[in-house]
TrEMBL record, chain A:
PROSITE patterns linked: ABC_TRANSPORTER_1, ABC_TRANSPORTER_2, MOP
NCBIfam families named among the record's database cross-references: modC_ABC (TIGR02142)
Gene, per the UniProt record: modC
Residues in ABC transporter domain copies: 1-235
Domain Mop as annotated: residue spans: 293-360
Name of the protein in question: Molybdenum ABC transporter ATP-binding protein
InterPro entries in the record: AAA+_ATPase, ABC_transporter-like_ATP-bd, ABC_transporter-like_CS, Mo/tungstate-bd_C_term_dom, ModC_ABC_ATP-bd, Molybdenum_import_ModC, Mop_domain, P-loop_NTPase
Domain of life: Bacteria
GO molecular function: ATP binding
A Pfam family that the UniProt record links to this protein: TOBE
TrEMBL record, chain B:
Protein source organism: Roseomonas alba
Membrane topology: Multi-pass membrane protein
Keyword Cell inner membrane: yes
Top-level taxonomy: Bacteria, Pseudomonadati, Pseudomonadota, Alphaproteobacteria, Acetobacterales
Name of the protein described by the UniProt record: Molybdenum transport system permease
Main location: membrane
Amino acid sequence: MAEIALRHRFPDGGFSLDVAFSAPAQGVTALFGPSGCGKSTVLAAVAGLLRPQQGRVVLGGATVLDTRAGIDLPPERRRCGVVFQDARLFPHLSVETNLRYGLRRAPRDAQGPGFAEVVDLLGIGHLLDRRPARLSGGERQRVALGRALLSRPHILLMDEPLAALDAARRTEVLPFLARLRDAARLPILYVTHALEEVDALADHLVLLESGRVLAEGPVGALAARTDLPLAARRDAGVLLDCIVSGATEGGLTRLDFPGGALLTTLHPGPAGTRLRVRVRARDVAVAVEEPRGLSTQNILKGIVADIQPAAEGPEVFLRLAVGRSDLLARITRDSVERLSLHPGMAIWALVKAVTFDHRTVAEGAPLHPTAAGGSDALPDS
Amino acid sequence: MSFALSPEEWTAVRLSLDVAARSVLTSLVPAIAIAWLLARGRFPGRMLLDALVHLPLVVPPVVVGWGLLMLFGVRGPIGGPLNDWFGIRLVFTTDGAALATAVMSFPLIVRAVRLGLEGVDPGFEAAARTLGAGPIDRFVTVTLPLMSPGILAGAVTAFAAGLGEFGAVITFASNIPGETQTLPLAIYSATQTPGGEAIAGRLAAISFTLAIALLLLAELVARRMHRLLGRG
């Protein structure tokens, strides 16, 4: 468990930060917001690399900052494993020496995975003798993850670890991040402005805007809200926690979610693989009678739970209760009137099987074999 | 004209190398400390310190030698106690020549070391901090290796310049063959001696060759270090 409360006003420009939130003892807490919202500043203040004017930070039961009590531990005594956007591997040291840098300086009684275990987890065994200059961007970031984890920290802080990589490299590193999340019994603070990383990795979400916390809570709960800036995005929609339950003869994958099932063209893995799927509100259509003769694969029976205006004038969000899950549909006001949609009404939600394009990774998702074998690029599925 | 050096000329060459080496060795650590203060320090009087360090570049070398004579002479405020309590005499000795050379080349080393230090991305030091490295630890394991090309460049330049230091050495340590008569002093003496043109020519050629060789060596080592540090 990590508790964080910070206040800071920058001298020029007048940007001020005033945030308070807590991160669960395990899993990824994503700090999400547009650039300039202060999310990296929060991370720097937690690590001790920036001193806020007021604040209190408690990591793993230890108070590392309390401006009122005059406590301000230097970064070297805070035990935060930081993964920087630019990796920051020491260029004069080999990969192995880089990995052992934090391990050597960790307290003797500190608990954590061993060297071999971490090397294996991140698939970097074949890189140990190399210098950082001879690594690809993705390899560098994997080594940086290992170095941070091996310092036996109370918390892992990741500052947009994928932002400096191109799409192929991101796809390469993402599964390793998911593995690390599942293997590390630590809170992870993950700063990003990429929603697909939130979808793929985060359990808990802290939404930031201009230095303030707009909302925090489980990722799925926040994604389903229509009153947050998230809802104004093109990819606004609910997140469904799914399990692969099988494949159809036509080559589609069947995903079970609480209260229903979806067919998709994604191939996330064998039966039992868990993944989170974003069902974008703009990809969901509704029908008031059971449709026939449609190409759409997913026709889910549900009930209109409520109707909320969208940020843009002529559109609304329909919240649809499908089994135990909620779906959001973004449709025009005109359609609402034409079909006399109202809460409590029975409807059919239509979702095309080809609309799921987010590559999401959740616990139990297998790694692509070539990634573990050390090759660089993973094909996009 | 013969190219073979006489024993006296060899002595001058050896002495020059000796004096230059000692001057670099003594000034390296203080130069790193001063460069650190100038690059990273935030204290009143930083500009004054900067000016003071650069003084030997702009003051006539004879004046530097004279100043050293005042300070380190056997009756000077530093030279007096050194002589009375420890029996260390700097005036007219090889050590004195090394001191004069060190003072003259000090700004060269400081400038190069400071450039090297300013080239170190503070992000690496921040990373080392988050990994548990305290101030001395991260200086030794991260900052120092990353600034080493600057240190090396400074040392080689100061060594090359030290081989040729004239004004301060002759003023402070005098021109004693085998003791303080380095290459440039020997060349000067030769030009003042009837029939010494051949000696002066040979010694000048040696000076020239040493300088070129050192500059090439510095360039080669710098390239190799940059490669080791992954900068191309």
